[in-house]
Design brief:
Structural class of chain A: alpha/beta
GO molecular function (chains B, C): cobalamin binding; metal ion binding; protein dimerization activity
Protein name (chains B, C): Cobalamin-dependent protein
Number of strands of chain B: 8
Radius of gyration of chain A: 23 Å
Shape of chain B: elongated
Bound molecules: cobalamin, pyridoxal-5'-phosphate
Mean pLDDT of chain A: 96
Strand content of chain A: 5-15%
Mean pLDDT of chain B: 93
Oligomer: heterotetramer
Distance between the termini of chain B: 48 Å
Number of helices of chain A: 21
Number of strands of chain A: 12
Strand order of the largest sheet of chain A: 7-6-5-4-3-2-10-9-8
Largest sheet of chain A: 9 strands, parallel
Organism (chains A, D): Plebeiibacterium sediminum
CATH architecture of the domain at 35-122 in chain A: Orthogonal Bundle
Protein name (chains A, D): Lysine 5,6-aminomutase subunit alpha
GO molecular function, one term (chains A, D): cobalamin binding
Shape of chain A: globular
Distance between the termini of chain A: 31 Å
Helix content of chain A: 40-55%
Low-confidence stretches of chain A: none
Helix content of chain B: 25-40%
């Protein structure tokens, strides 16, 4: 993709990237000095903490709640200490904690002992994740030829994991490459992860480790049957980013919606909290080879898709830097964007094409996640169906990677089974019918499409300059993204943020930093500065 | 007992669209809603409405129904288990022991040849050979716009075992008149019981054809071997082997 | 009396589509046909069917209905004849003689702000100013994901004349639970009759809202002035001018 | 359109054109020596013959039937003679004929008297046609800016002219630029034109002069209301080509489906008969400034659209020559083609685009009539709706002129009112959304699209060479078009063909030849040879 159809100025792209680097720098500084409730809980989960008490409170929460301010030292010490002191397996210890054991009060044993023991569990985690990535790689390689391009992404959202399984298997048989289980409304605001198989959700199904496992199995089953690797997606935005990432790593999810900007703007999560969480969650995703999906596409549900296109591009640049700084390679960055222009806009198709193509050219290696029209979908399911076709067209014609299929009933209800079927046939028809179109056409020099891309890139640079001047925290407060303002100290979850003590200990974090080469990056960065 | 399904078993979800002959307005929307209720749906949502003209409005509707049906009681003849090309020819050799004569046409003012061609022409349709290719069948395709009189004349002249009638245009029930006329003419000629008469077309069902006095009717997606099987089995059962 | 219309008055034509929880087959098609008959349609055609999975099939259907409805008897409140921005402000000056206090939010776990923003925000929606722009209205938009408790607390603190509740997510009737809870809490607090309570959202109708104990409900396509008119007229008629 | 996006070889195009000229030459020779029942009836109609007898037989038929073999002298002489002898107006004479008067037996008066009298009626006809064209030109100029491009063409087909009016007016209000009243099934096989307003048709409404008038008035009305000139279309293929052309000229129709190849192949009209008829019908259309629509698009309903694309292009070349030879300028040649490729064909969209674009480049001035998918439409109205969207896309992206809107219920029934509405919104959405796309993209040099166009042009030339070698009559007999064989002496209407006597007299024909400059063309042609 070295040849640019849009004739974009590579220097400008480089400039935008440098600005994004500068923008995330102060945020990273904040991140490196803090930990959160959910980072500690995620760490505990990776080390083996699991289960719930009779009130349904998860063991990791029990531990962290009991620790209180001791969190500044990291929860690991206390959990591993308890394991050693009680000479217990994690399963045994989890049970005791669920029954009331407070491990924060157990006298600490020798640091070296704790460190060594911790390595054992990290090793166990690594083994399991490695097994997952091996399985995935093997299947993807074996079944490559049956995959659609872009990958077709379908959503299930019945609220009941067992109904979801039926719908997901049907979707896979119909041609989906990716199945996402939408979370129930409001889960992102829960400061814990629910437990076990669940059958009651609103607008979606609870993300639980057991639900992950059930769906993973169902998709593997149908995948084997049809000779395809079906990717499973869930959400690690919200108050439990790293915990859900950890669960995903363990249960072999393949993608995670994962974006603190989304949480801040659309779920009113506190910005400090979620930036800190995001880093660890992305490290886990990177380690488990899980593709993230970022959420800047959502800006266009509150902002106008033409006027504010540059906010999406700018956010992609920022998300890219955050991702690099968490050890994610470009090939795992499913940066988000969307086809949300007013369908009545003259030449709207050309502009959508310009936007999609510029995302493609600016992030050539990223598995871009392209979102369908939602905002301008109405009860006119017929019109909606051709808007979805135009969306599929642009996606194929600009080589998008991950195609979230639009539903003709978007404005009405969460998808019926038949809606999903129609969506897949729509996409398959278009993708086959225009298969080599991207390759067969060129954009006129200085035509509408080229000029539009140039314009958006210029706007992006000005915007990034402004954000850089203000600082990202202030920029968010001042409504610069999605036209939504979030105060720095407002929103949910700030009380779960802790400054790390100089003695803070988190062997999982350190291990991942090492594995992902982040230590050296940090050093290098410092050198450059 | 089963019900229509949206995303939960037995939720009874159904999508509808229709036009009402009223000017588009809030009143029209309410009328559409009540109309859907009168049609027997509940939790009705008029999800979209628009003016088609000053006097007509269009509605897209979702609703739910309590209606259920006993799936075990549904009966249907399964044409898909018909014989194939080879089996039909073998069957004729074995049971009828001579070539079967079939005359087909698209009749009346109907000019759609593609359907009857799909059944009869050498090259067939969708990789299924047409009757002309069957060694044990002598097939005559008279084409389209053939009058019933002409068809009968030909069938008598060729000593047809079976007549195939294609009807594609169904607007204003034109096919009903035309199909009925053929049977009446054949009865008048006294040859109805000597010849198997089969109708076909995208909007022809077995039930309709039987009601109109045909031996069978074949709808969309029919393959030549489905018709061939029916003819030869019918002949065998009628012991028409002379 | 009117009937649905395809291309001839009173033909009763209707398009349907639905899924049945059965494996796709000729029997499934026949079941779909009979199902449509049981739904009350005649001249039913299953024009398309396809497998959704091993256990589900999808059908597109056209049919005709004898059902008719008396259009003259349809009654509907026409919101479109509500006052406009200027008239509302004048009405308040003349009849209420002080600023009207309105508190709004998208409540429960619902995070859809765009609808309530369309009604309340300064910039409004589709060229219609939002309530914040009305000089005679003091409008407070609490945003989304606001709990009923919080909303009531604010309303009391601000001495609200009216509460606006937006509900967009309706899956599994989540809005019903949440909307009912608000009214119950207000009644428990003894403030229900002091405050006008209005619900809105794309799947909220006036009828439903009234059933749940609200003063009114507004659906898709509502403009700020529709709600404003309702509030001030209600206040005037309740003689709430203190 | 001098710059070719397809990079087609202009010499090849010229070559194909020359071949078509040669192909039509012997047919024209045949045509010039013959007249037909309906040519004579059309001539009579132009001179004033009209009305029916109590059995519903039209006066022009009564006259021509009575004439028998005298037709070889032309019917005009007898009709004008009777007018003179009876000292009657046409209205009076028509009445007498309807009541039984046989004018073939009236002694002939002086030839000069007859000729002079004939000129009067020709003058009257000319006046009326001129009034029509003036009105049309004035309105089209005045309302130009409200027209869609391509013009949106909708069909009404209730069978009842009064229902048609409702549907047509609704269609116009929804955005149609053109309304066609489909004829009842079978009318093309009638060797007369039915009379009066009719309310009973199958799959369409009878084409009668009264129905033309009713619909014309209805469309003018709604046109004035919405500030648009709504074009009216009917059909003059079949057994009465010139008569319907004459009626159309009188009642200000704007377009006529008019193609003898269509009649031969799809209605089993005898080829000699209809070629002779076509010439006169096209002369009338040319004189009345009526755009013809040819019917080679129909070939693709029986032949495969990819394999046999060249038969359509070849037929367009042939139709072009027939049209030129009837005095039709390129700007009135609505040559037909269609989007009929199997939707499952890989890259089908690119091939459709190539075909549409090549028609556009080869016939730059022609108001191309582009037909929607029909053959591969199924009861899946949703899929059908996006196929129609892709069709609209190609039409707009290749600057087609006349867009016959596809119906999502094509495979099911003649259009419901709602179907038509959906079709218009589909087209309007696409046309606005991709407005300048045609102008903004280029085809890759030697890419799939360019190569496909080149291939079809090459195939067209070989095909035309073969037709030229065999002769057009033989080529038709040998199934070369639409894979349908029609024997030279088979089909309907051959008994209505008469060799012209050396004394054949048809002042209308002569007048039109003069007006259309056909005499000089013929002379020039002879010179070139
Ligand atoms: C191609 C076509 C034409 C071509 C026909 C070319 C030809 N030589 O056949 C042309 C362009 C000439 C044409 C003209 C018209 N058509 Co047409 N046409 C179609 C079209 C697009 C496809 C039909 C087709 O070829 N299907 C493919 C074949 C293989 O399928 P099939 O016919 O269903 O046949 C299968 C089965 O039904 C069965 N079968 C069929 N016959 C028989 C017989 C027997 C004995 C058996 C056992 C089985 C059998 O087996 C076949 C294989 O599985 C349809 C729309 C559509 N997409 O269906 C409209 C359609 C059929 N046409 C229609 C109309 C109205 C017309 C016209 C009358 C329009 C007009 N007024 O000018 C004209 C006139 C035709 C006339 N006088 O009959 C309408 C009919 C509406 C209705 N329900 O009454 C349709 C549905 C389009 C529409 N929505 O308006 N048409
Ligand atoms: C934008 C959007 C989002 C954005 C919201 C951004 C934001 N800040 O608001 C984002 C991406 C965050 C989002 C998320 C989700 N969404 Co959402 N979303 C939409 C979408 C595309 C548009 C909604 C919209 O903005 N409409 C425009 C406004 C102006 O219209 P409106 O809300 O109807 O408001 C008008 C009237 O209803 C009325 N009105 C509304 N409120 C009130 C109040 C009063 C008092 C009055 C008088 C009038 C009034 O006046 C307004 C102006 O006329 C719809 C689909 C669609 N096209 O409708 C789905 C949709 C609403 N979402 C849906 C779902 C399920 C979700 C999720 C729960 C999915 C998930 N599990 O993750 C999440 C979580 C949200 C949550 N916790 O609530 C479903 C709801 C299904 C259902 N029937 O229950 C929909 C229908 C999509 C679908 N088909 O699945 N969504
Ligand atoms: C990045 C991201 N995270 C999460 C979500 C889902 O919302 P929630 O986190 O509330 O489940 C979305 C939905 O669009 C998203 O884009
Ligand atoms: C050139 C032409 N003439 C006429 C018709 C209509 O058919 P008929 O002449 O039978 O009315 C068509 C239909 O496609 C056509 O293309």
């Amino acid at each position: 993709m070295s040849y640019s159809k849009l004739n974009l100025d590579q220097h400008k792209i480089e400039k935008a990237r440098q600005l994004a680097k500068q923008i995330v720098k102060p945020v990273n500084d904040y991140i490196s000095k803090h930990t959160t409730d959910t980072i500690e809980r995620a760490t505990l989960r990776i080390l083996g903490a699991d289960g719930i008490n009779t009130d349904g409170i998860p063991v990791p929460n029990l531990i962290v709640d009991a620790l209180g301010n001791k969190i500044e030292f990291g929860a690991t010490t206390y959990y591993i200490n308890a394991l050693i002191r009680k000479n217990a397996t994690p399963q045994q210890l989890n049970k005791q904690i669920a029954e009331g054991l407070d491990i924060s009060t157990i006298t600490l044993t020798d640091k070296v002992l704790i460190e060594n023991k911790a390595q054992e569990f990290i090793h166990e985690f690594t083994r399991r994740v490695k097994q997952n990535t091996d399985y995935r790689n093997q299947k993807i390689t074996a079944y490559k030829n049956k995959e659609n391009s872009p990958l077709l992404y379908l959503i299930v959202a019945t609220g009941n994991i067992y109904e979801d399984v039926k719908q997901a298997q049907a979707a896979a048989r119909q041609g989906a490459d990716i199945v996402a289980v939408i979370r129930t409304t409001g889960q992102s605001l829960l400061d814990y992860v629910p437990y076990g198989a669940t059958t009651e959700g609103f607008g979606g199904t609870y993300a639980t480790q057991e639900n992950f496992k059930i769906m993973r199995k169902a998709l593997d089953e149908v995948g084997e049957e049809i000779g395809k690797y079906i990717r499973l997606v869930n959400y690690c935005s919200g108050l439990c980013m790293p915990e859900i990432a950890a669960m995903g790593a363990l249960e072999r999810l393949d993608m995670m919606l994962n974006d603190s900007m989304y949480g801040i703007l659309f779920r009113d999560i506190n910005m400090y909290r979620t930036f800190v969480d995001q880093k660890f969650s992305r490290m886990i995703n990177a380690f488990a080879d899980i593709t993230i999906n970022s959420g800047e596409d959502n800006y266009l549900t509150t902002s106008d898709a033409y006027e504010k296109a540059y906010t999406v591009t700018a956010s992609q640049f920022i998300n890219e830097q955050f991702a690099y700084d968490s050890g994610l390679p470009a090939r795992l960055m499913g940066l988000g964007h969307a086809f949300e222009m007013n369908p009545d806009k003259e030449n709207g198709f050309l502009y959508e094409m310009a936007h999609a193509q510029m995302a493609r050219e600016i992030f050539p290696e990223a598995p871009l996640k392209y979102m369908p029209p939602t905002k301008y979908m109405t009860g006119d399911i017929f019109k909606g169906f051709i808007m979805n076709a135009m969306f599929n067209f642009v996606a194929k014609a600009t080589n998008q990677s991950i195609l979230l299929l639009g539903m003709l009933t978007e404005a009405i209800h969460t998808p019926f089974m038949q809606d999903r079927f129609l969506a897949v046939s729509n996409a398959q028809y278009i993708m086959n019918n225009i298969k080599d179109f991207a390759n067969d056409i060129e954009f006129k020099k200085d035509g509408l499409i080229q000029n539009r891309a140039k314009e958006v890139l210029d706007q992006t640079i000005s915007f990034l300059e402004e954000v850089n001047n203000k600082g990202l925290f202030n920029a968010i407060e001042q409504k610069m993204f999605a036209e939504i303002s979030r105060p720095k100290n407002g929103g949910k979850g700030l009380d779960g943020v802790y400054e790390k003590s100089p003695d803070y200990y988190n062997p999982v974090y350190e291990y991942l930093e090492n594995e992902l080469g982040l230590k050296s990056i940090a050093i290098e960065r410092r050198k450059i500065k | 007992m089963i019900k229509s399904y949206g995303d939960t078993i037995n939720d009874g979800a159904v999508q509808l669209s229709f036009t009402l002959p009223v000017r588009h307005s809030a009143k029209a929307d309410e009328a559409a809603k009540q109309y859907a209720h009168k049609l027997g749906f509940y939790e009705v949502e008029i999800v979209y409405s628009n003016a088609l003209s000053d006097e007509f409005s269009f509605f897209v509707v979702y609703g739910k129904t309590h209606v259920q049906i006993d799936y075990d009681k549904i009966e249907v003849e399964d044409v898909s288990k018909s014989m194939d090309f080879y089996e039909v020819n073998d069957f004729i050799k074995e049971h009828i022991k001579r070539q079967v004569v079939v005359v087909g046409a698209c009749t009346g003012t109907d000019a759609h040849t593609v359907g009857i061609d799909a059944i009869m022409n050498m090259k067939g349709f969708d990789q299924h050979y047409g009757l002309e290719r069957y060694p044990m069948i002598e097939a005559y395709n008279l084409g389209a716009q053939v009058s019933n009189e002409e068809l009968i004349k030909k069938a008598i002249a060729l000593k047809a075992d079976a007549i195939l009638v294609s009807q594609v245009v169904t607007q204003k029930e034109v096919h009903i008149h035309n199909m009925t006329e053929l049977i009446e003419l054949m009865e008048a000629e006294g040859i109805r019981s000597d010849i198997i008469v089969i109708a076909g077309g995208p909007r022809i069902g077995n039930k309709l054809a039987m009601e109109l006095g045909y031996d069978a009717g074949f709808g969309r997606g029919t393959y030549p071997e489905n018709v061939a099987s029916f003819i030869v089995e019918k002949m065998a059962s009628k012991a028409m082997q002379y």
